[in-house]
Amino acid sequence: MWREMKTRELAATALMLIAFAAPAAAQDDGMPQGKRPTVSRDAPPSSNATVNLINLLVKQGTLTEEQAAALIKQADDEAYVARQATRDATAKAEGAEKKATTAADAVSPPGTKRVTYVPEIVKKQLREEIRAEVMDRAHKENWASPGMYPEWAQRIRFYGDIRARYEGDHFPAGNAPLTNFNAINTGSPFQEDNSAIPNPYFPPTYNVSQDRNRFRFRARLGADVDLFDGFTAGLRIATGDSSSPVSTNQTFGGNGGDFSKYAVWLDRAFIKYQPVQDVVASIGRFDNPFWSPTDLVWYNHLGFDGFAVQATHEVDEGFTPFFVGGAFPVFNTDLNAGLNIADLERNNVVPVKLPSRDKWLFGAQTGFAARFDAETNLSMAVAYYDFTNVRGRLSSACLVYLASDTCDTDLLRPSFAQKGNTYMRLRNIPDVQFPVQTLAFQYYGLASDFRPVVASAQLDFSQFNPIHVILDAEYIWNTAFDRAAVAAVAVNNFAGAPTGDGPFNGGNQGWLARMTVGNKEIKHLWDWNAHVGYKYLESDAMVDAFVDSDFGLGGTNLKGYFIGGNVGLGENIWASVRWMSANNIAGLPYAVDIVQLDLNARF
Q: How far apart are CA 315 and CA 321, in angstroms?
């Protein structure tokens, strides 16, 4: 007990000496910049009593060498500020003295002798005022502590990640060619067979018979900025083969090859406002605001454009309900959108502006997080999404003579799609042979409306902390799907391999179950986890543009198993492996096995 009391007294004495070290050191102007007193358990006696005392405390084990070095640095910084204050005080005092002498000489008779005297108490007061002013400025501008960022820079937080990937895509024998509706809708319309002018060409299709090996990478760099009164802003840029919303992967050798430069896209740009701890409002392009434990419904890194509000509040210990709502423009009609209509009576073309075909997503989700005990957590949620104006509609009678001609529902075709959804023809092209034969240049739109209900759940057991056992599950049901109406207009997803001439067999439901064992996050050396799961997603359960882009090479109308794992190789660097086996549910036969090997780094 006596030893502990003496140690405390010595520590207190050291701190008092450091507090008085700044004024004393103000007289020492000869210390070269960069030469600092050092501390060591074996340091020789020093002429500086403060350093001697700190070395003594280090030897006794009261302070570590790092703590002692920090104390001496603090004393040295304050001494530097004190020297600056003393110089400023001296200069101001001398200036005031000169002005006072000049003023006195101006009013004194010639030959008057004066001896200037400034009381010591006045000098001390000036020194203290100037020292306080300099210290205040030093702390605000951070120049009293070398290496510190200015205040505005400390409000910016940079982050990023890089991933290198090998991907092997392996197709079994027996796959049928799948029509690439996205290539048609984002390019020239496809000329279907016409009784008068048969089309000898096939529509563009996906290559589902040749195995592929790809080396890919992803790089992202972002910054979050604290503004004021609850406002924050964020930006992020990312790589990518295209502006696809569901992939930031860049394939080596892509973009023309020959080591061409790769594109960088604006991936996030948002402003957030958090007036209280439990409410956050976001506007711009931001992360998915809805809680989604799996990638059944939404691609994991999908960015949402629009406005969202998130609210959460712990109403009882361990029970926290939450709510999310938002509105998101999926497509906005160009102000210049128009078409040319052939006027057969006047034998000319009449320009007409197209009606607005804006597409929106409205969504709401409610749920809760419950902690039953320190080792068991359950989260559950139910969401409802309403996609407006995404279903295709047959146009009015439309005369098409060239691929560049336009019909009044062309804007309803998806501007981006993957695979799986059921499609319908958008153009109502009459068979007119005078004065020129019309051609069946066709675009395609989604055959169903989409208003899915999604139930999500996650159960987390941490009895073996830091090892967790996590069970994830999600279910989706598209309540707007009308099987009879879709089947009446569908052009794909028919049974009857290999020709697909059987009955329509698309669907509107999906589910995913997954188990993960290991660390929740991979941050340190030898952190690890592994997962296994099964996925079943029918053709029209969800808009295929926004679901996972890896399983089955992207889209809906897929079922199959997946397994994978991660292991930490160091601080914020880890390796991953994943295997996925997917098969078509409806329509033509299609299957693919995918192997992915990743090296990830985060900073």
A: 7
Determine the pLDDT at residue 539: 97
- The number of angstroms, rounded, from the C-alpha of 595 to the middle of its chain's C-alpha atoms is 25
Quick one: pLDDT at residue 122?
74
Count Cβ atoms below 10 Å from residue 418 Cβ, excluding itself.
Answer: 25
* Integer Cα distance of 561 and 583 in angstroms: 10
| Residue whose tokens read 């809805």 | 290
Does 426 share its domain with 304? yes
**Same domain, yes or no: 12 and 130:** yes
Q: Does the pLDDT of residue 245 top 60, yes or no?
A: yes
The domain boundary residue, chosen from 141, 156, 181: 141
Contact assessment for residue 118 and residue 97, using Cβ atoms and an 8 Å cutoff: yes
Question: Is residue 158 in some structural domain?
Answer: no
Of the chain, the end-to-end C-alpha distance in Å amounts to 47
Q: With contact defined as beta carbons under 8 Å apart, do 48 and 65 qualify?
A: no
- Given this model, what pLDDT does residue 102 score? 62
| CA distances from residue 575 to 155, 212, 217, 466, 565 in whole angstroms, order as listed | 32, 22, 14, 19, 8
- With DSSP H G I counted as helix, E B as strand and the rest as coil, what are the percentages for the chain, rounded to 5? 20, 40, 40
Instruction: Indicate the residue among 141, 160, 191 that finishes a domain.
Output: 141
Nearest to 518 by CA among 563, 580, 579, 470: 470
Q: Per-residue pLDDT for 363 more than 70?
A: yes
- The total of other beta-carbon atoms located within 10 Å of residue 143's CB is 14
For the purposes of burial, counting CB atoms within 10 Å of the CB of 193, is it exposed (0-12), middle (13-18) or buried (19 or more)?
Answer: exposed
Query: What is the per-residue pLDDT across 1-54, written as a single tens digit (0 to 9) for each?
Result: 444 444 445 445 444 544 444 444 334 444 444 444 444 445 445 546 677 777
Radius of gyration of the chain (CA): 36
Which tens digit of pLDDT belongs to each residue from 436-483?
777 789 999 999 999 999 999 999 999 988 999 999 999 999 999 999
Element (H, E) at 524: none
Mean pLDDT of 59-78: 74
Helix (H, G, I), strand (E, B) or coil at 486: helix
Q: Please indicate, yes or no, whether residues 313 and 179 belong to a single structural domain of this protein.
A: yes
Q: Give the H/E segment covering residue 517.
A: strand 509-518
Query: Does residue 148 form part of some domain?
Result: no
Residue 137: what are its φ and ψ, rounded to 5°? -65, -40
The domain that holds 359 is classified in CATH as: 2.40.160
**β partners of residue 477:** 453, 509
Its domain, for residue 556, covers 172-217+264-602
